[in-house]
Amino acid sequence: MTRKLALLFAGAMLCASAGAEPRRQVDLDAPGALEQVRRERPAHVQAVTRILREAPERKPQAIAGWVRTAFDARMASAMLIKTSYPPRARLEFVLDDTEYRALVTLRNVEPSLSPAVHP
Question: What does pTM read for this prediction?
C-alpha cells in the first residue's frame, strides 16, 4: 500500500512539474521573432507588444509583478540588469506554454549609492 501511494505521489509530481515547464522559447530580440509570434501565437501578440512597449517606462523592481498580474504570466523576471548606459535588463515571462525573452532598455532607473561592505 505504501509503495502504491509513493508511486501515485511521484506520478502526480511528475505531471505537475511537466505542466509548469514552458514547451517553447521565443527570443524576441531575434530577427522576425514578432512575426513568428503573430503567425504561431496570435493570442499573445497584443500582450507581448504591450509588455515590450511599456516595460522600459516602469521601475525595474516593479516590472515582474506588473507582467504577472496584468497579463496573467506564470513567471516573470527582469532583475538581471546590465551595467550599460542606458541600463538594460533581460526580461523573461511565460504566457501559456511559451517563454518569451527580450533585452529592454530601462528609462525609469533611479541611481543609488551603496556603502562598500568589508568582510
Answer: 0.72
Decide if 63 contacts 73 (C-beta within 8 A).
Answer: no
What Rg, from alpha-carbon coordinates, does the chain have? 19
Assess contact for 6 and 12: CB atoms under 8 A: no
- pLDDT 10s per residue in the chain (119 long)? 544 434 344 444 444 444 557 689 999 999 999 999 999 999 999 999 999 999 999 988 899 999 999 999 988 888 777 778 888 889 999 999 999 999 999 888 777 777 888 77
- Rounded CA separation 25/118 (Å): 41
DSSP-based three-state secondary structure for 58: coil
The CA-based dihedral angle spanning residues 92, 95, 98, 100, taken in that order and rounded to the nearest 10 degrees: -30
Q: What are phi and psi of 80, to 5 degrees?
A: -80, 90
